[in-house]
Amino acid sequence: MTTPLDGLQPHVRPHVASALQRAGLDSWIPEGPGKWSLPLQFLPDENGQGGWVELMRLEPGTKLTLHRHHGEVHGLNLQGQRRLDDGRIIGAGDYVFEPSGNVDSWEAVGEEVLILHVVVRGDVDYVAADGSVQRHITTADVKAGYRDFCASRGLRPRLAEAGA
């Protein structure tokens, strides 16, 4: 049987365990093959842009397909590596800033699970090579996914919007 802390380095485990407890979760929220999320906070709407803070967990080889951010994004690798579409390898302790409008894709690489702390402002569009929107994600969608996951497991959601 696996636990939510499997595959995590010792320095990351207590932070993930604390975040799971704070969110009222017993596991990561699955988002697709090789990808899970752990919401930390939902951000208030500022200038028409809400947002969220989360930990992302990706197995090596898992790719985030081409996507566009409507607001800025801050990402800090806590464990593992990812390769950006420009070829840069981002390792543990490395930080990446993505400005509003940034379009990119990236992949978890190496031998260990990638744990990424990310702050997302605004909506996210997953786009095709021609730029057409394939999927649009809002803060409300992320909140609903969290609440639905809690309901499906008989858990009580504990996270609210910051300042609420």
TrEMBL record:
Domain ChrR-like cupin residue range list: 27-116
Transmembrane segments: none
Pfam families assigned: Cupin_7 (PF12973)
Top-level taxon: Bacteria
Protein name (record): Quercetin dioxygenase-like cupin family protein
Annotated source species: Roseateles saccharophilus
